[in-house]
Model the fold of this input.
Amino acid sequence: MAEIEQPRFQDRFTDFQILLFVAAVRFVIHLLANNKYGFHQDALAFLANGQQLAWGYVAYPPLTPFIGRIGLELFGPSLVGIKAFAAGAQCIAMVFTGLMAKEFGGGRMAQVIASVAAGIGIMSLGMSTLFQYITFDYLWWVLIFYCLIRLLKTENPGWWIGVGIFIGLGMMTKYTMAFLLPPLVLVVLLVPQLRRDLTSVWLWIGVGASILIVLPNFIWQVQHNFITLDFLNYISARDRDMGRADGFFTQQLYVNLNPVTLPVAIAGVYFYFSEQGKKFRPLIYLFFGVLLLFAVAQGRFYYAAPLYPMLLAAGAVVGIDWLNTKNSIAQKRITRTSIGLLVVGAIIGGFIFVPVAPVQSAAWTIANDIHDNYYDQIGWEELVEITAEIYTKESESTENLAIMTSHYGSVSAFHIYGSGYDLPTAISPVNGFWLRGYGSTSPDGVLTIGYQLDQMETHFSDCKLVGRAENKYGIEKPNPEIYLCQGNKASWDSIWEELQRFS
Done:
């Protein structure tokens, strides 16, 4: 009886299962590493806003706080649990980058290379460790481009529904999604293969779906006099003054990408202008159109990070096609070199952004000097603990004692951790916390955090130093002094108006 031949290992799994496995490996790595340090100040703000769900917030749309609320309900303030949403979003984007390569005609190797190349992007690795809106914004852009790829390949206008839904979700995550709309409209009007969809009901269903998703936030903005526009204008001017928009184009090459994947992205540009990629050429028009708009608006470099997976997917296909023209010896040599470079790129990216180094170690300091995100994850719960000790003492002599902070990160820390120390809800005249006011009754005194003494003496007749915000690592935050201020010189309504600020 003839022996039944067993399938080879690589034949036991589909391409999609392989992509899922690659993404799952990365996801597990993040689960193991994301329990270090603490929450980033931005993550704390999203979580704190998630405690008071609304259709809009001063600083951003409502979807990320909503996801944060789900995380809090499921896991509480768990670093690993909350950050799992961020890591999961980036791993899903990896899978769809591989699927893009498949749509371009790439085989398994091209799909895996595309997926890994996207996964080791410096920004992608960073977004997997920080619970921020840029993480989910990235995913929606990737899904939009995947839908457009399917639309261009199949000529099935039904894919416009997916485009519309993900644009809507993107607008409910981060308003930079609006930068996609002008280039997309122009491409639809100017490219014949898309212009014919203007007569399709599916395109307009997609438009309608996008509008319906965004409508609640638009109504919120109307009700609040479009306060977000004031916030965004302030942030844009601040970033320009601080030089945060400098180096926009150079940082595309080594932060939005990984230095080792730059050749793959360049090959991707070639693909779209080649005969092989002619059908998908509208995508490269969108790429350069959005990139140009971000640059003209002096946006931050990372706004453009979600544009690169579609280049990496196309570049991986070009690279494998080129590899297949070589003899077997050259193929093995090039493959080993490519795998080695990807591993090196992953190690570089991990060193920079994956939180494994001990705080204040040489590696931690180097990484923090590059991106400063580690600094913003230290000391928040200790701040709450120190303040709780002071509050317990001072509240004995001050009946209605409030806690007021000057920064959205610190006030958010009190919202997340304060209940564990029996503290009242902290107040802050910053961003959306200002809209919530100073409480139902005027405070008799306030413990102020993050303010300078002369700032508080403008509004209160009696301010004294009662403590300092410190942490076991000796990392000092700006204005660490904690003051007890009493004897307000004007009404609290007036003080609240004067203290209002964006950050």
